[in-house]
Design goal:
- The complex is a heterodimer of chains A (about 270) and B (about 290).
- Chain A is an all-alpha fold and about 270 residues long.
- Chain A is built from 13 helices and no strands.
- The longest helix of chain A is centred in the last third of the chain and has 35 residues.
- The radius of gyration of chain A is 24 Å and the shape is globular.
- The two termini of chain A are about 40 Å apart.
- Chain B is globular and about 75 Å long.
- With about 290 residues, chain B is mainly α.
- In chain B, helix 4 crosses helix 6 and helix 6 runs antiparallel to helix 9.
- The chains are: A mainly alpha (about 270), B mainly alpha (about 290).
- At the A-B interface, helix 1, helix 4, helix 5, helix 6 and helix 7 of A face helix 1, helix 3, helix 4, helix 5 and helix 6 of B.
- Chain A: It is found in: Cell membrane.
- Chain A: It is a multi-pass membrane protein.
- Chain A: Its main location: membrane.
């Protein structure tokens, strides 16, 4: 028994060492973001002599961070809201009516998950260009198209477990389909909605390629998009670049530490289904 | 009857319309364009299989395909190895369990583009500085050769995705009945035997999901590739997704790029379907 306890302690120490290794890229980024160009040249591992926020003020300004951050929030929130509303509705329709057509449509949504973005991107840009929808609205609509598959799949699984007799009872009480869905079914889907929201937020918040093809107006860039241009300008000025990266990451890390349980649970449920 | 179905189509319309306009229609157009001389503007005329013949003869595309394949094999192995190891580690009864999980998962919250930039700093600056400190020249210029660029990407991907895969394995590991493991222990099975004969078969479904995710993610990799190596030096670390993007938007060869994109789709679909099919079959046998 004693031997078992000992090996557990050794394993735990191993775990902690691994965790420190896992964190080291963040450490190196943050520590060096406070250094001057010359200080960084001397040694990248040591702590800075003085913690100066000068790099941060410059990067914050050049990234136009408040506006960029707001753009990212706006697009992510709207896209995720649209995905939750319309995917849950579609999944409800598919699971309640059943039949051959529903089966085919459901398969179509699921099969679309196999299609890599690169194989549709060129015609996508061309089609949406002709429709004059290469803007934020178009981008959100595209996120619905790409996000619906997994979301409908997740909602569909849960909806199959909610008895139809519930709907029938409500119908007898005189409720129509919209009332049944929004007042009775949708509140019951809350746990799936959380999973759907988490998975889509992580993906959309971090997406680079799609916004880079769709958002062409200056002042509308999301964080990854702005970061790409920022980097191109400051490739040789690592102290500024690192401050910029840190600024972009900090909000995510703060939110993560508040919601870590839900996030990890959401991700595990999303991938296990 | 019509009225009874109206709600059905109303509920379905927005999602279905988006799927049609964003995925199905572009895919159909894309396949059509790949057989034409479309350049994004002029009306396309039919050229048959010309692009498909040309793309396999093109060195750049073949190199990208080969590099992507090599990278996928290595990173799928590494990610699953680390993912499962981490999962086995943090399902022990540690006091630090939750904080360890939180840390290992953290890189997944940050976009591939930003992660690539962070690691670009580490591979070029930190590695060089450490190399100088300990006198190992091999640590310098890590992103300037194909081999080190390859391993740089493999390290980045393992660091990022192992935590995600860990979460999947954890949810299956926690479902393994403790009585079964205890029974095996009483029967004299050592910890390796317990893992191999009891735990492993029971987490096989997790293996299916993880393999699917890591395979398709590694094969479709773009952001990390773009920000870490940019495909360089001399396109030697360029992966397929990036090659297609360049053909289309840098060289402006739209139809040719689209033919590559169709081949890319076929490969991704074939790999994913085969893998799921094989794993499902094995699951049943267990």
């Amino acid at each position: 028994m004693k031997k078992k306890k000992q090996s557990r302690i050794i394993l735990e120490i191993l775990g902690i060492i691994l965790a420190l290794i896992w964190l080291s890229p963040f450490y190196l980024m943050i520590v060096n973001s406070f250094k001057t160009k010359r200080e960084m040249f001397e040694d990248t591992l040591k702590l800075p002599d003085v913690f100066s926020f000068e790099n941060y003020t410059v990067a914050f300004e050049r990234l136009d961070f408040i506006k960029t951050f707001f753009n990212s929030v706006l697009i992510t929130v709207l896209a995720v809201a649209v995905i939750i509303i319309f995917s849950s509705m579609a999944a409800y329709a598919l699971s309640r009516r059943g039949g051959k057509i529903s089966g085919i449509i459901f398969m179509l949504f699921v099969a679309a998950m196999l299609i890599p973005f690169q194989s549709v991107m060129i015609p996508l840009v061309s089609i949406f260009g002709k429709l004059e929808m290469l803007n934020r609205g178009g981008l959100i609509f595209m996120y619905l198209g790409f996000g619906a598959s997994l979301s409908i799949f997740l909602y569909h699984g849960t909806l199959s477990g909610i008895p139809k007799s519930l709907d029938e009872a409500a119908t007898i009480d005189g409720a129509n389909r919209f009332q049944i869905f929004w007042h009775i079914i949708f509140p019951m889907l809350k746990p799936v909605s959380v999973t759907v929201a988490i998975l889509n937020i992580i993906w959309i918040w971090n997406d680079y390629l799609l916004p880079s093809l769709v958002i062409n107006k200056p002042g509308m860039e999301t964080i990854p998009l702005k970061m790409f241009f920022f980097f191109g300008e400051y490739t040789k000025q690592w102290h500024l670049a690192l401050a910029g990266l840190t600024i972009a990451i900090i909000p995510v890390i703060i939110i993560y530490f508040f919601l870590q349980k839900q996030i990890i649970k959401g991700v595990s449920e999303g991938s296990v289904k | 009857m019509r009225n009874r179905n109206l709600w059905y189509w109303l509920f379905l319309a927005p999602a279905l319309l988006a799927l049609a306009l964003v995925v199905i229609l572009p895919l159909a157009f894309g396949v059509y364009y790949s057989f034409t001389d479309w350049n994004g503007i002029r009306t396309p005329s039919f050229v048959g299989l010309e692009h498909y013949k040309a793309l396999f003869a093109e060195k750049e595309f073949r190199d990208a395909l080969w590099f992507t394949t090599k990278f996928t094999v290595v990173s799928v192995f590494l990610i699953n190895f680390f993912g499962l190891s981490l999962a086995l580690l943090v399902t022990q009864k540690f006091k630090t369990n939750n904080i360890l999980r939180t840390i290992f998962f953290m890189p997944n919250l940050i976009g591939g583009l930003i992660l690539g930039f962070i690691w670009q700093f580490i591979f070029t600056k930190v590695f060089a500085s450490v190399g100088e400190l300990i006198g190992v020249e091999a640590l310098e210029g890590w992103l300037s050769t194909e081999t080190t660029g390859f391993w740089a990407m493999a390290i980045l991907m393992s660091w990022q995705m192992a935590g995600y895969i860990m979460v999947i394995y954890i949810s299956f590991l926690e479902g393994v009945p403790q009585e079964l493991l205890e029974a095996a222990e009483i029967d004299g099975a050592n910890s390796f035997q317990r893992f191999y004969h009891v735990t492993f078969p029971l987490v096989m479904p997790a293996f299916t999901v993880s393999l699917f995710l890591t395979l398709s993610n590694s094969f479709k990799l773009y952001d990390q590739n773009l920000s870490l190596t940019g495909g360089g030096p001399y396109n030697s670390t360029q992966m397929v997704a990036m090659e297609i993007f360049k053909t289309a938007f840098v060289e402006n060869a739209m139809a040719f790029a689209q033919a590559k994109a169709v081949i890319f789709f076929l490969i991704v679909a074939a790999i994913s379907l085969t893998q799921v099919y094989i794993n499902k079959k094995r699951e049943v046998e267990m």
